[in-house]
Amino acid sequence: MYGRLEEDLRSTDSFDMIDKKTKSSRSSKNAVDTEFDHVDIDNSEVNLKNDEVNMKNVKVNMGNGELNMGNGKVNVENGTVNIDNGGQKMVNSQINMGTKEMDLGNGELMKTADESLSSNGNHDVGLSNGCKHYDLAIDADDNVKNSEVNLDNVEQYKVYKSRWFMLFVVCCLNLSNAMMWITFAAAADTTITFYGITSLQLNMLSMTFMFATVPLGFVASWVLDTFGLRTSLLISAWLNGIGGLLRNISTLDVIPADHAYTVLLIGQILAACAQPFVMFAPTKLAALWFPENRRATANMIGSMMNPLGNMVAFIIVPLVVEDVSDIPLALWIVSAPAFFITIVTTFGVRRSRPPTPPSPSAGEVNQPFKDGLKQIIVNKNYMILNIGFGAGLALFTALASFLEQILCPRGYSDDFAGICGALMIVLGMVLSAVAGVYVDKTKQFDEVLKVSLSLAVLSGIAFTQVSRLRDQHVWVALTAALFGGFGLTIYPISMELAVEVTYPVAEATSSGLCIVGGQAQGIIYMFAMQYLTQPLSYHELSLETGCHIAENSTTTVFEPQDWTYSNLYIFNVISTLAVITLVLFFKPEYKRLEAERKITALAKKAIEVEKSNKVTPVSTSQL
């Protein structure tokens, strides 16, 4: 029963004043209570004198678009109002209110540009995007006697405790997947000896994650936006779990030695395919399950589990792997969280979104994936953010993957390299937490991003210089920690900014493609850095090394390299260009926040007007 009567008062006929004396019941503060009320319709103007409506023996029947008023019966049909016993007839009586329309076709009152009121027993008043909802309790059925509208029962945006379980699942998946990603970078030399592979084959185990993310990033974004968060998490959990199992099987004696690396690589590829389905999830989770003033914090927590997984691997793997024979044990320890979270996700995650939205934007229907792609590729601010953030992510990934290979030729042990990697993550998580709370309160995403990236680049350049020197443990650890600390801070901030500057494009699309861009750049930079490595000088070879090199071994052994040119031409130059571009040309507009402010303001105004129970004179000239 949803008809529509556009309010366009075209008739210029004058009508006599209808004077009815009445007294309505007063059962609550929201009841309509009037006396000596008048309705004057004259020269296309509606005046409600004394701001009151007189209705005696009122019977409102909205079922068939019919209004019964005691001895006078008003039938609303096709824009014509017939007063049965009143002797008057209004033909084509429509009232146009500009962009606001009032429809009374089948008992529906709607303001299309601002708010809508549907009559279906329990009235639902919302904004045009369907984000704000009010429950208007009507103490009657379709036929209302002594009508009363209770506006106290207002449904506010609600959050659910289950949001923390969803965040727990995303965190565990991200952590376990990151542990498998960086496993072999934390024990590069021993892995090469165990599997009998080259340095390039070793680095391919880490680079598969980047190769997989680029094409599957589009698929993961589409799955998240089309099928929902639950489907994406299930795909990620099972790919991650099966990949971990195959990695462990590669160490068993039943696998021929010349096929062990192949089985290992297949398992690593499956785990890599799982990454985009969970790596893109924190932004979507924060938008769907958390209120506006907690989104950045929730996004930060979910996103930081990826580098936390790197840190755990950097700590555990060097501690476990004291000899080549310890590689199998390390793989089983690393894969244990993946097996656990696969079971939890399968049986614990039951839905993709909460029953009701926690914020205005969470209730919106996102744009289709293809339409979103078309919008973001022509969005200047988004493309600048994608390139700048992507460069930072790529360089952080490259440094984390090559950290042990960069440090051990200068005499730094695997344990020390693991400590440096852990410090990068720990400080990064601390600063990200601080930044997340800060931007939730201040909304200064742009300022935090630019300052953090600038400090990260300066720290990274310092690290590439001191890492060339021997016996500089304090400075190496300090500069690595600062680079990781400020570098990781930009991660959740950039994800939120990607959503803000592309709104209303779906969250998984805008944030996910930033990660895809970063992984694509990472592939290029990592290949270039390996290509630019140089053999160590005779002098360096004669000095003590921190690398595990098996003497008199018949298998392939690790060969230390000089990474000076790689760090100089790739790390330093690219990072400097990225920060200059972002600082000078990135001028974001917070579209999502602005839309939510408008929605909130309109909602508050609607509540105030409805609770006032006061009708003011309105004319077409005012509208």
Short note summarizing the structure:
This protein has 623 residues and is an alpha+beta fold. 56% of the residues lie in helices and 11% in strands.
Mind telling me which CATH architecture of the largest domain this is? Up-down Bundle
SS content category: alpha+beta
Q: What's the helical proportion of residues?
A: 55-70%
Described by the principal axes of the CA atoms, the overall outline is: globular
CATH superfamily of the largest domain: MFS general substrate transporter like domains
Question: How are the strands ordered across the major sheet?
Answer: 9-8-7-6-5-15
For this structure, the CATH topology of the largest domain is Growth Hormone, Chain: A
How many β-strand stretches?
Answer: 19
Characterise the protein shown here:
- The protein is α+β, with helices and mostly antiparallel strands and 623 residues long.
- It folds into 2 domains: 8-155, no CATH class; 162-546 and 561-589, MFS general substrate transporter like domains (Growth Hormone, Chain: A), CATH 1.20.1250.
- The protein contains 17 helices and 19 strands.
- The strands form 5 sheets. The protein has a 6-stranded antiparallel sheet, with no helix packed on it. The chain has a 5-stranded antiparallel sheet with strand order 11-12-13-14-16, with helices on one face. The protein has a 4-stranded antiparallel sheet with strand order 2-3-4-19, with no helix packed on it.
- Strand 6 (66-69) and strand 7 form a beta hairpin.
- Helix 7 (295-320) packs antiparallel against helix 11 and helix 10 runs antiparallel to helix 16.
- It is globular, with a radius of gyration of 33 Å.
